[in-house]
Amino acid sequence: MKRKVCESLFAVTLALTVAVTNIPVTAFATEINQSARQEQMTESVQTENQGQQSDSLQENHGAQNETNSENGQNSTDNPAGAEQNSGEGDNPAGTDLKKDNQFEGNNFQKVDNQENSGVAEEISRQQNTDDNQQNAQVSEQAAMLSSDETQWNWHKGEITQNELKKLLGDSWPYAGTYRWSKDRENWNKTSAYGNPVYTFDTGTYYFQKETVTWTGIQWNDIGTKEIHAYYNMEINIYGSSEGVVYNSENLAVPLNSTFQVYDNKYKFTVKNIENYEIKVTATGGSQGERKLTPDANGMYEVIFDDDVTVKVEYIATNYVNVKIGQTENAEVYINDTLIENEDTRVNLNENFQIKIIPQKGYAIEGVTVDQASVSDLSFEKYAASFSWYSGETNQATITISPKVVKEVLALKENVMVSYHKGMNVERLKNNIFNTVVNKENTIPNNISIDDVEIQYQSGLGWQELDYKPIVGVFAHEFGNNDTEKIRISYKGNSQYAPLEAETTVSISDERIETQVIIQEGITIQYNTEDVMKQELLQYITVQDKDGNTLPVDKSELTLSYNRIVGQQELTVSYAGDDDYKDSVATATITITKGDATVSVNSQKITYGESFEAPIFTASPEEAKAIGLIVGITASGEKYASIDLSEVTVNDIAGTDIPIYGKKSVQEVMRSLGMTSIKVGQLPELFEKIQGIIGSESDIAGVINGIEKVINILEKIVPGINDVTIHIGELPTEAGVYTAAGVTVNSNYNTAIGVGTLVIAQKKTNAKLSFNQNIENKHNRLTAAEAESFDFGGHIEVDGNAVGDTPGIRTNFVGKTATGEIVSGTEAFKEEGEYIETISIIGGNYLAIPIVRTYTIGEAKNTIQFEKKIVYASYDGNEHGMTAYAYNEDGDKLGEAALEYQNILQTSTNVSPVENSSAPIDAGMYRVVAIYDNAESEVGTLVITKAVAQGTVTVGNAETTYGQKLNLNSVIIQTKNIAQRDIAAIQDTIACAGSDEAIGSHAITVTVPESVSRNYLRTIKVNKGTHTIISKEVTITADSCKAQYGNTFPEFTYQISGVSDKENLGDISVVKREDGNHVGTYTLDVQVANQNSNYKYNLESGTLTIKKRAITVAIDKKQKVKGQKDPALTYTVEGDGLVEGDSLGIYLSRKSGEKVGLYDIYMDTSNLNKDYELASEPSGKDKFEIVENKAGLTNQKNDSGKSKTNGTQVKSVKKQPGTVWDRIKTGDNNKPVGYFIAVLISLAAIIMIISARFQRKK
Fold this sequence. Notes:
- It contains 15 helices and 82 strands.
- With 1257 residues, the protein is an alpha+beta fold.
- It has ten domains: 180 residues, no CATH class; 166 residues, no CATH class; 94 residues, no CATH class; 79 residues, Immunoglobulin-like (Sandwich), CATH 2.60.40; 162 residues, no CATH class; 176 residues, no CATH class; 79 residues, Roll (Ribosomal Protein L9, domain 2), CATH 3.10.430; 70 residues; and more.
- Strands 1, 3, 4, 6, 7, 9, 11, 12 and 14 form a nine-stranded mixed β-sheet that branches. A six-stranded mixed β-sheet has the order 37-43-42-39-40-41.
- Strand 28 and strand 29 form a beta hairpin.
- The longest helix is centred in the first third of the chain and has 46 residues.
């Protein structure tokens, strides 16, 4: 209830709140969202305006340049507008540049229309037409103006008249007349002349255009435009890299760049930096340079009437004073600031930069700081720069002293320069430089020849020293005059500027006189020209006139002599150089024969290829080797060749021989009529050449060398002397050849070299082909066709037939129609079936023989194999061929029957019988296809042996001792073995050892010959292992039972796991523990002489001794009332008591002395554990007390005491919990039942009363 009241109060409060405020919560949230969106739109417009302003500035700049170009104006004509578009960019000051960019041209046009609505109706239609046209133009311009949504930003508010007209939509020649006003009362109008510059203040202007009609002048609104005048401002900071300038909105201003200010004033603040004073100055405008002072808030203000540059200087209060030494001819900059007085300040603990720029004609040779030289000066464009650390001492002084020197190129006057015709120009430059330049008085004093350019006055201006004037030109070559005017130009470097100076020198040849000295009695061995020259130079020196050996390059000496064996006159000439004059000398020398060698380039090529040249090489080369090649071709023909085309008579003579000297030996042979020559005639040829040479040279050694070679070759190829030589050729036929080379230059001792040339038969892309193919499916020819048929074959290379090929053999074999077997080398043309085989032996080619069958006879039904020859590899499966019979029209009649005959047996055990089943085993099978009324057709089936290595791996087996191994269960794994062969191999499996004892032995297989014959490689057998493990046998002792006191039964056992018990050893069962009392005892199995082939598992049994069952009968007892009780006794029946044992049973009776029967109780709590009662006492035996009547006496034993089994039994009172309560002879406790019944009844009554009470309650 209370909750409902609260809820009601809450609802009422809520309703009252809504009613009072009358503003829903959702409406309040919506208003907040609208405010946020409005803020975002404001920021977006401001950003867009800034971008539009930048674009407008770029457009104004281009438009003004275009206008100035069209009107031919320059900076002189329009000084105010020359830079009016410079410096466009962003507005870093953050000034609001634009409030409303929208023109109002459309509204003005509507107002004009309303004003014009009162025009008199009598104006003519023509007038209306003209007005409408002009109004249309005005409307078009207004639309153009209003469509430009950007404001106009003009530098200083200035714009030329033509540019303004262009912006208002006018076009060249800008003839329109316009006016403008801020308030539509005070108007400014464009000029009718020239291109004046107008100045606009920032604001919104109304623009109108003048329209002239026949009735007068009208001004039509074309729109409004917001114009902003701006000034360029630049702020630069010096003295600290941490300096910052902030605009009035506390935004950092970009430094060292120009930005625009769209107001006539600009305010800013400068960041204060500890230990610095601030100095602010402004330049530009009518106020010139002035110092700016901040107001109380630290704000500086710049007033604009022109562009302004502001300089902010941070002047350190903790500083080091830098003093500059004397610098009359140089300017010093510290941190890029020109030091105009002697002292300046730099910050403490700062590396400041010093730059020293010399005046023209001067250089910086060095700088000292506090009298210590600066070692790390760097130079660029003659300016020296370095960095220096100011230190930590406040107001200390550092003195920087640059060494400024004047550059001088000092030249000597009227000095003598050594020169001769042909002098090396570099040497001449060195002569002039070293003679003319006065290095002691030259700055820089380390100037070198590489730093200067030297020219002379040729008559046609300054020229290089090696200048060669054109003939007829009024100019001279250097050295033609006794004196020459020289100009030396120093190139300069980063430290020193270029210099040049002129002087006049005299020319003279000042070189040293020389003489050539040749040692007497020189003897050298003939060799190549270079080698002989080097050897001769060892005996030649160049000396001055005083006999001093001069350091000349001997390789430059010129040696002239007749280079041939014998005594020759040697002339040595020294041409001189830039230091020494020329000289010459002669002497007689002796030249002996030189040593030479000849090598043979032994090669092996294939027929059709060419030998690599050269085959014969003489060393030295001018020893000239000729090569004789002899051998036997693959066809068995002898061959000899020699090439004498490159050896001339001069080469053999070793000197120049008139007329014949330059002719080759082959040309000489033709001249002598020796067009054909045999090997043995070569010495005769060279003897005739000796006659041509005459006494100029002796070639007897050459002839002797040729004879030696011929003797060697005769031994290699007997009979070669009689073989005609192929002149100028190399062997081309396949064969083996011996190549022997001989040097033939008579200036050398004759040398011989021998090698081998081999031309192998060509087999690549070479094959045998039949001369003519049989153009039918059955290779059948009629007898007439066979007569003209071109049997035989030829070699083809790359598909092209090769003619005249030696070594081709053709063989024929077959059976005539009469059954005669024939063979021969000529084709058989009578009716029958034949095989033609083409092979090649010897010759230049090596090719596989080809075979075809052909039939001579009339056309019949024919048989055709799908494949005439079928190749297969043995895989254990049948491989057959297929042939079909065709009639004469080529129609397929059916499949032909096939008979297979192995004509190439792989085993002698296989008979070459015909079989109609497709073969499986490897071999070559002649396959005969048979069909009715058709000649049988023979094909070939080749089943090659399996190539892959076959492997048989026998698996391992394990059996238990006594178990026979089933060899068929042994797994055999094979690789590369045909399936059909596995069973055959499996049948050979056998154990290599005995199964009679545990252990291991091999399981092996034998590969039958019927299997191995089908495999190329021996099948590898990996044996297996048969392991016989011991047999488990379990011997278990039989468990048995016995009654205490009786004799134990015989101990027996059971054997499982074996049937033969004879070999197990001696087995026995023994009782593990001693004792005969009731309990369970372990029976262990023991085996003596165990068999090692068995693994024994011995399992124990048990002997259980059970309690001895007895029956106790209580003896009846009686006494006379008042007498003592007789002894209570019992009798043991059943199995009886073991001798020496006692039972431990005690008897007692129920107490009482009244006449009557009393129960006798038997206490068995101490009953002997080896015994058990077979049954309880009957309970009939009572102890009776009778009245004392005559004749009644107590029963007594002989001693007069009551005993039971010799144990005295006392009469005792019954105690709770005694055996009496458990075992008694009778039951007289009937009241208990009643008591229980009463208790049950009472319980029932109580339950009934309780139930009723509960119901009432």
